[in-house]
Specification:
Layout (H helix, E strand, L loop, with lengths): L4 E3 L6 E6 L23 H15 L3 E2 L9 E4 L15 E4 L5 E6 L3 E7 L4 E7 L1 H6 L1 H11 L8 E4 L12 H10 L4 E3 L5 E3 L1 H11 L4 E4 L13 H7 L6 E7 L2
Parallel strand pairs: 3-6, 4-5, 9-12
Antiparallel strand pairs: 1-2, 2-13, 5-8, 6-13, 7-8, 7-9, 10-11
Length: 249
């Protein structure tokens, strides 16, 4: 039985998808496919889970150190670091089928991008701060520098907390909307909210990317996926699921 993955169609010669909580080796409360280090889970279990995701992708998955910034890092081969990490970056661009690139999330947006004709793909971590900082544009610009064309680029905006669930203070909503107006939202409770997925889709449109699929799955309400907000409300720890993409020979 294969790993349960929400597969994403980004065209021929591309393998892409989003993992769920299922199919891994982590114990509770992270059970079972937590790919996030530094959330209290056993590092050996996290590495085993990442290897399982790599088996699905067909190549080792490279993750970066995500800091809610806008740095895009281009990888032409496996990183030379001892632990296999790409280093500090919230967008990873790959130009080789030797590796897959991935981001880990638990409410933030995992964005996957591909231009198979140019031989370039990207995985982007877009939380509230990264969205405002411009991580989506940075990823598209880095791909264009390696030959990608906006009219060929395909994007999938992955599962994230919905605007109807992401409650924030009014001042925070105003700050986000000042940078990305489409992210302005109202929660189901009638309080100020932020719609990260809508914001990412709008930033893609401004960058000239027209082939965009947005998954409506909300991490806060869908228990197949990890949600930091849902876990915090329950007073428990949680893991991270992954958005992963790879060029296929």
């Amino acid at each position: 039985m294969g790993l349960p993955v929400l597969e994403a169609d980004l065209g021929p010669r591309v393998r892409a998808g989003f993992t769920t909580r299922a199919g891994g080796v982590s114990g509770e409360p992270w059970g079972t496919l937590n790919v996030g280090l530094f959330v209290g889970d056993r590092p050996a279990d996290v590495r085993a889970n990442r290897e399982l995701v790599g088996q699905w992708a067909g190549a080792p998955v490279v993750f970066g150190e995500q800091v809610h910034g806008a740095r895009a890092l281009v990888l032409d081969g496996p990183p030379a670091t001892e632990d296999g990490s790409a280093g500090r970056a919230d967008a990873l661009v790959a130009t080789t089928p030797q590796i897959a690139v991935g981001v880990y999330v638990a409410d933030c947006v995992p964005l996957l991008l591909a231009d198979a004709d140019a031989g370039v793909v990207a995985a982007v971590h877009a939380g509230r701060a990264g969205l405002v900082a411009g991580v989506v544009r940075a990823a598209v610009d880095a791909m264009r520098a390696r030959g990608a064309a906006p009219d060929r680029l395909r994007a999938v905006v992955g599962p994230s907390i919905g605007g109807h669930s992401y409650e924030v203070p009014e001042a925070m909503r105003a700050d986000v909307a000042a940078a990305v107006p489409e992210a302005w939202a109202v929660t189901r409770w009638g309080t100020p909210g932020v719609d990260l997925g809508a914001g990412v889709a709008a930033e893609l449109a401004r960058a000239g990317v027209r082939q965009v699929t947005r998954l409506s799955t909300c991490t806060f309400t869908d228990e197949r996926l990890y949600s930091h907000r849902r876990a915090s409300a329950a007073g428990v720890a949680t893991g991270r699921f992954a958005g992963v993409i790879r060029l296929v020979r």
